[in-house]
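[job 4471] stage=fold_predict status=RUNNING
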Amino acid sequence: MRAEGPEGRRAPRLDATRVPCYTNLVANLTIVVDDEVLKRARIRALEQGTSVNAVLAARLQAYAGEIETQTRATQALIALARSLRRPNARKLRERRRFTRDELHER
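[job 4471] inference complete, writing structure tokens
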């Protein structure tokens, strides 16, 4: 049964679980993974002094942040392209010519 808030209205339902050691709400995630893979992951995490849960949480945070990073990089590239279209940028464009090899160097 959900608790009632002020004026007899029901309090909003929370879709995440409150874990005592966290100050924010966190969601539980269930995945399906091969037993052998999980066993090797647990051993590797133990060797690194961490847990599979911590490794997966860090990977998910990085994965979720990739779109933000790509968006910022795209916006910066568009801003640079616009700045090079300005008349006073002609000198900047003529300063240096790159060879094909330089442009494709990684």
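[job 4471] summary: Residues 6-90 form one domain.
[job 4471] exit 0
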